[in-house]
Amino acid sequence: MDDLGPLAAHVGSVASDAAVDEAALGETLAGMQRDVRSYPGVADLVFEYRRAFEHDPLVAREGRAYYLLVPPRVWREFAAGLDASAGVLAAAKVVHDRAFSAATALEPAERGDWEPLVFVADRAP
Questions:
Q1: Count of beta carbons in the 10 Å neighbourhood of residue 43
Q2: Number of domains composing the chain
Q3: CB-based contact 90:82 (threshold 8 Å)
Q4: For a surface tag, which of 66, 67, 68, 109 has the fewest beta carbons within 10 Å of its beta carbon?
């Protein structure tokens, strides 16, 4: 499984809570990270998001991890490109939410309609 950074700490508990296969959840999360890293990289995608969205989506950055709040359509776009069940995709969102919540001081009520998304770069830029 690819390096999931801060997401890895939540995979087991979310898989158990959601009654989904832990390996399938881990592979889905790894697939998302591979997709992001191939665009020519996390920093470039975050830059594009900053230009495209009405609010700056970058809430925090810690080393290789970027903590973003994105419009719901971004999650739908990622989900469409992944070969995973609805249950695994829902669990993947929960993993991102838990990692985001653990790393930021932003309360869920302060997020509005935007959804947490955590990207992990190959290496620190």
A1: 13
A2: 1
A3: no
A4: 109
Cα within 13 Å of Cα(2), Cβ side: 19
Give the bridge partners for 115, in sequence order: 70
Q: Determine how many CB atoms are found less than 10 A away from the CB of residue 40.
A: 8
Note the pLDDT tens digit of each residue in 77-124: 988 888 999 999 999 999 999 999 999 999 889 999 999 999 999 865
Distance of CA 99 to the CA centre of its chain: 8
Beta bridge partners of 120: 65
Q: Is 26 within 8 Å of 82 (Cβ atoms)?
A: no
The answer to whether residue 125 sits within a structural domain is no
- Domain with 86, as residue range(s), is 5-120
pTM for this model (two decimals): 0.92
68 touches 119 (CB < 8 A)? yes
- Tell me if 58 is assigned to some domain: yes
